[in-house]
Amino acid sequence: MIHQFSRTELLLGKEGMERLYKSRVAVFGIGGVGGHCVDALARSGIGEFDLIDNDEVTLTNLNRQLVADHETIGRSKILVMKERILAINPEAKVNIHSCFFLPENADQFPFNQYDYVVDAVDTVSAKIELILKSQAAAVPVISSMGAGNKLDPTAFEVADIYQTSVCPLAKVMRRELKKRGVKQLKVVYSKEEPVKPKFYEDNDTVDAETKGTTNRLAPGSIAFVPSVVGLILAGEVIKDLAGVSVNKRN
């Protein structure tokens, strides 16, 4: 019988699709990377989502974020994303958490109920706590390294954190995770050297719209990099949950 996931089922099989239907995936950070990841997960048949973010859509999100258009500016990203998931798959269950994940509120999240965790947050302290909580609960986790100030989407790859190089964020994460006894972590990262942002000469343009959540200047971004990272993350989640492997070229 034909259904909306029939073409996916041809690749993953009925048993693989059933695993996806029964899976609960938590995505922390619904921005350029996280939004595209969630969309791909929804289109692949994931049955339940937890979306964690406290941002609203802003003007500068329009260049790369799936939830952003002129009609959604000012709206909650997780609410827009929930509507999108349900428009794709009305049978999906979507739990929303309107907050930023922090070490201080980490105990509020039911990690032992998740089947997979996607780390698409920006801050190092949040990433570390997210990884520690996931691994303590024996939940698979995949983490996005730096996607800002990058122009080459083909340079991203999947690796263990201790096999990464070049990426400044990955360097910090290697050091901090090693201190905490974390032995391994699947990540998506790029060996591309970060592009130096061409800051505006007019200081008046450096306002809230060009700053990150830590009140520092946000990195440069472009449509075709965060989207690729999000899709790579989703691909790893789907393959792991469905129990399929890919024949890689030599």
Features:
seven-stranded mixed beta sheet; 14% strand; 250 residues; alpha/beta
Structural account:
Helix content is 33%, strand content 14%. It has 6 helices and 7 strands, in the order αβαβαββαββαβα. α1 (6-21) packs across α6. A 7-stranded mixed sheet has the order 3-2-1-4-5-7-6, sandwiched between helices. The protein is an alpha/beta fold and 250 residues long. It has helices at 6-21, 32-44, 77-88, 124-136, 168-179, 226-242, and strands at 24-28, 48-53, 93-98, 116-119, 141-144, 156-160, 186-190.
Order of strands across the main sheet:
3-2-1-4-5-7-6
The quaternary structure here is: single chain
Largest sheet: 7 strands, mixed
Percent strand equals: 5-15%
Q: What is the arithmetic mean of pLDDT?
A: 93
Helix content: 25-40%
- Number of H/I helices: 6
3D shape: globular
Kindly name the structural category. alpha/beta
Low-confidence stretches: 210-214
SSE order: HEHEHEEHEEHEH
The whole-angstrom Rg is: 18 Å
The number of strands is: 7
Distance between the termini: 37 Å
Describe the secondary structure blueprint for this structure:
Elements: H1 6-21, E1 24-28, H2 32-44, E2 48-53, H3 77-88, E3 93-98, E4 116-119, H4 124-136, E5 141-144, E6 156-160, H5 168-179, E7 186-190, H6 226-242
Parallel strand pairs: 1-2, 1-4, 2-3, 4-5, 5-7
Antiparallel strand pairs: 6-7
Task: Describe the structure concisely.
With 250 residues, the protein is α/β, with parallel strands linked by helices. The chain is built from six helices and seven strands. Helix 2 runs parallel beside helix 3 and helix 2 (32-44) runs parallel beside helix 6.
